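Below is one such protein, fold included:
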Amino acid sequence: MKAIIHAGVQGIGGLQYTEQRDKLPGKGEVKVRLKTAGLNHRDLFLMSARTNQDAPFILGSDGAGVIEAVGDEVTHLTPGAEVIINPCIGWEKTDQVPVVPAILGGPTDGTFAESVIVPQQNVAPKPAYLTWEEAGVLSLSALTAYRALFTRGNLQQGEHVLIPGIGGGVATFATLMAAAIGAEVSVTSRSEVKRQAALQLPIARALDSHESWEEHLRDNSVDLILDSVGPATFDQYFDVIKPNGKIVMFGASSGDDITIPARAIFFPQLHIIGTSMGSREEFIAMLQFMEQYSLHPIVDTVYPLKETALAFGRMERSEQLGNIVIAIN
């Protein structure tokens, strides 16, 4: 089968379009003939951390396609079924949080290939209202956004959520989900182009990351902040968040090291909460939520499998608004 592997050198330069050995599903597994897959920033982080001593593997966590074969003891799935893949492996119950979630596409082979083999519990029926392009980019970002907003952030109708760094998949899904329940949404970006594009989304305002958010939100402080940026924006959060507010952290695109002013936490009694990915229970709930509100992923661009390196170049330059699709079959 045709596949994109990463081998040899760090970063995008290690991507290779190759022929890989086809495999059969084992006990409790299904083989999915993929139609589409989706890029995530996680893929860039994995590639940047690898060396020429690491074994080659197939990248990709998101995907959708048709079941091609099933292994022994698979009873409720049959070849021909249209499915979407849940990339979080082995996390079944929401309250049984793993130390680090196991995610498809590193170190296990992922979805940038003509087919992928996953445990039977990691596929769900493809929502019929979604196109293949939309279904192929849904899972990782939408699951992360759903858990961050509702399980960890407990966002309610009428509350105000701030989403720094609009553009990536999690941020755009979180924007759509929060607006769907009647929350007020503000976003930020360094890019004027992205801020203007974001105004097409159901948001109240798009702020410049380099300007004073406090001036723009003086009379409209926020209940919840979804932080995927880290130190580059963290100091500003304390200027705009309400007492008893929540900062839910799921990423650190500007680095790991932040300084937390103690009094800014304990006097207003803020909550700093971590989150990453989500359980199978939340994945099913997320799909039901998307369908209930007829939400569609925002598709930025579509690239063929052999041009995956070009697709990652667009992501690395932060040019996208929404999700980048890889068309496979």
Notes: The mean pLDDT is 95. The first strand starts at residue 2 and ends at 6. The radius of gyration is 20 Å.
